[in-house]
Amino acid sequence: MLRPVRRMPEPIAQPVLEVPGWEPATWQARPAVQQPSYPDQAALAAALAEVASLPSLVTSLEILTLKRQIAECAEGKRFLLQGGDCAESFAECDSHTISNRLKVLLQMSVVLIHGLKLPVVRVGRFAGQYAKPRSTDLETRDGVTLPSYRGDIVNDAEFTVAARTPDPRRLVRAHSLSALTINFVRALMDGGFADLHHPEYWDLGWVEHSPLAREYRRMVESIGEAVRFMETLAGEPLGSFSRVDFYTSHEALLLHYEQALTRRVPRQWGSFNLSTHLPWIGMRTADLAGAHVEYCRGIRNPIGIKIGTGTKPEQLLRLAEALDPQREPGRLTLIHRMGARGIGEALPPLLETVKRAGHPVLWCCDPMHGNTETLDNGVKTRRFENIRTELDHAFDIHAAAGTRLGGVHLELTGENVTECLGGARDLTPEDLQRAYKSSVDPRLNYEQSLELAMLIVRKRG
Ligand code: PEP
Ligand code: CO
Questions:
Q1: Residues 6+ apart with CB under 8 A from 149
Q2: In the predicted model, is pLDDT for residue 458 greater than 50?
Q3: Does the Cβ of 86 fall within 6 Å of ligand 1?
Q4: Which residue's CA lies nearest to atom 5 of ligand 1?
Q5: FRET partner for 65 with CA separation of 20 to 30 A, picked from 146, 208, 277, 399?
Q6: Whose CA is nearest to atom 10 of ligand 1?
Q7: What is d(CA 26, CA 30) in angstroms, rounded to the nearest whole number?
Q8: Is the pTM of this model over 0.85?
Q9: pLDDT per residue over 262-318, tens digit each?
Q10: Which protein residues have their CB within 5 A of the ion that is ligand 2?
């Protein structure tokens, strides 16, 4: 959480003093997929020693507070809004990008708070989202084969031997840039930047282009009125309303890096990953006998798990057992990404199985990754309509199964990019050429993100 914690988290499970047979390094005895192969092991050891000696990025108290809040999302007392880029890049660690991304997430959260009548837990998948899982270790172009680009924490995307050789110094740089990002977010929050609940400051020109313009205008007016009413009652600007909590997440892929930031803290049992509040596991790294599951089972952070149409109920069950043997509220967030077409068939058996086993998980919909498509001209995109449809279905499927959709994860940016089709301005394939900036997955732009928040409210409010 990027604000001082105001109260101590209550214990939400029986204290467990150690995780049997686990140490921060026990993953090293297991097969570890998605790890780069560093040519210089001494340089790797030196870089890791440096990261291990540097300050942590988050605190155990923040982590436990988030865990409690995730438990409340699962119980329907809060809603989780998680978002960020598919991958951060070192070059985009700048004030403009960070503040715009924060702004859109905060504005969306205000729409959700007002419309859902629930507190929103905000998690940015940034300040550490520098590693990317890849389908192959090597890439061949014109007969030349080089290591795949694995994210800026490992190597550079340029297709040269020098750029693609994994460089351990990048681990130290990733730590520094994550710290700079968190520091800037904390400063923005403390400096009143979070005071964004006045829709008159928002950039809402797009609303007029939507068939739902009247409804959206009414929504925005009523948010403004609600805030003004509360301020009149309080007799002053709503100080606490302008101060918001913010947490971070990233895919915990590079286990050496994660281990270097895994620490014990005074007056707490066990170990915490102090590089982020909410580390994720992907399906490519979810092998029960593999290193990532071994690493994650021992840390006390809440864990996010990506699940897709290929996830089998028994497989998910075994994963949940391995990572959450105590059935601890707030421990697991299952992030389903199945596509508008796949969700109807794939999700219900998973909901049923997890529910029957009694894991108190938070279900979170990622309506982005199952809806990625490649146009005839080779451009990777996602249609706003499919994103919206998957989210709609997700709410309905959970309601029918007696489970609860308690959050969303979106790939978005505060910039005015043109990467996803559709939305109020109805972006066409031709528009995509105008401002397509992502080198990984296509993201919702500022307007599309805010529109999606309003559509969630329309569905649930
Ligand atoms: C992601 O989570 O942004 C992503 C691209 O995931 P995956 O590669 O695991 O599908
Ligand atoms: Co992605």
A1: 132, 134, 139, 155, 156, 157, 164
A2: yes
A3: yes
A4: 86
A5: 399
A6: 369
A7: 8
A8: yes
A9: 999 999 999 999 999 999 999 999 999 999 999 999 999 999 999 999 999 999 999
A10: 86, 441
